[in-house]
Sequence to fold (258 residues):
Amino acid sequence: QQLSHKPKKPTASMVSAKTQNNLSPKEKTQDDIQYTISKENKIAARTQKLIIFANQYLQQYNRTLGKVREVGDCFFSAFAQQLNVVKNSVEYHAAILRRECAKHAQQINKTDSSGWLAESLWFKTAVEQDKKTNRSLHYNSWSGYTHKINKMQTALDEKTFAVDGRPDIEGRYFCKHYKVPFHLINIQFLNSDKYQQETPHIDHRFYNNNGSIKNQSKPDYKKNSVVRLVCYANHFAPVILKSERSSQIVTTPQLNTG
Fold:
């Protein structure tokens, strides 16, 4: 005698689980939406606290954070603003600095391993090595970097990301090329989950005008011939005197900034 196996009536939880699994990538439940909003609100709250802390720190030196409008190009834009101050110029902007990196990369490709290139090979090595250790970078190889570094985020579509600027690579090159020292102020939470109770951590890094890392324990804010940037929440902003025209506290940047 054969036993008849009637299918079980699906429970509410089974239906819910199946529905969740069958959702297309574009569909989101109310819980998904609430989770996303909550996560973005936390990120915005952490970022705002970093901004307030940065301005409180800089205030004692009669300085504040400057504005950077270019989402995705913030490192190049911030560095260019500081170059204009240091060199008393108006010619520098993010696109100029990106093109300079592309020009340098192309020059490396055209030159043999003798002469000045021996001093520039670190740049290619650093670009390639950073790609191996940081898979979120927006280029696949040295060739990809060479062809993409000059593209501004504002000129790309929403699904394509520009190459981010990095203090230890593009920043070092700018120091040497433009003959300027560079002071990076890195402000972050050591434990981002406890940002409400934790005081942000501040760290300084100094670069000579030849691109080498400078052994210096404390910053000297009396010198105005130094490019100074603050990095917080993966965003770069220039450090400016309070008396400068654009001296307003920067607003919270959008996510995925460069």
